[in-house]
Amino acid sequence: MTARARAVSRADVAKLAGVSPTAVSLVLNGRGDELRLSKEIQERIRDAAEKLRYVPNSAARAMVGRRHLTVGVVTRHPPSKLRLPIFEDVMVGVVEGATQRQHTVKFLPPVVEPGSYDVFGVLRDAQVDGILVHNLDWLARQLADWRTPVVYVGLGEESRELPLDQVGAVTTDECGGMREAAKHLIDSGHTSVVMVAGATPEGEPLPRLRAFSEEFTSRGLEAPRHIDPGEWTWTPEDGYRATKEALERWPDVTALHAGNDWMAVGAMHALQESGRRIPDDVALVGFGDFPICAYLTPPLTSVRWPLHEHGVRAVSMLVAQINGSDDGVGDVVLPTELVIRESSGGASHPQE
Omega into 279 within 30° of 0, i.e. cis? Predict the structure, then answer.
């Protein structure tokens, strides 16, 4: 493994600014007036810190008797979407993983897009020991350049561009689970299939949907048709609306994949409202395997997405990275699993 570059220290900032390390510490903690430092000197210290990309942390204090670290978390999801499982379930795992080690979790403002706010300034003032970045690959790369301990949590295809000799990444094999879903439907005789699920900003199906589709075409079957309900479509209303459109456009559909389980709830309602029986007329497969799946009528077949473990493993990697262990860098890919229930013609699968 390539050695991680030495982190910028308080002494480095002090040398560049021409002051003492104590002055640096006080100024960056908002206590510069205690030394009666001039505004010009305080500004020089801040400029030096920004030029060197210095992010203070409490690891040094932990090494001299306080073993509690502070884990920073930042996501790209806007505040209105933070209750979605893609964030909430991961963060429950993060908090549990940190709590087990008696560490603190500090949530930073979402970075909805580059330039949303002064990320460096916020990180500097937050004084965290390391950062978990959720679906922000560009920020993970930038933090690696700043020599800040960082673990990326999110989509596997984005992690491929990360310097994995310097950062950690925890992703899931979403494509593998979707291939299993496609095989299940093909083996059940379905050839007229529709995907009601999101797309990339360029309008292309998400990578896991492409994997699902390729399983059909690789066997000489027609590729599933696709309806993109729009960005941030995670509600039953989104699934209901998109499924209604799919049934109008392709009334011969025999199987439908909903991009997530909450959309599948709406899809189920639209199918039943149209007089179609599930799975006799149309098989239905979701994604996520959230707890509600086992209690729907019929119980929903879904790809299990280990979001909670995502968060737990990310904290473990970040702590290892802070402590200088090789276990803190590289890529960890968590497996997904197709859980077959009655909505696709399988036997009822008890909730674990």
Answer: yes
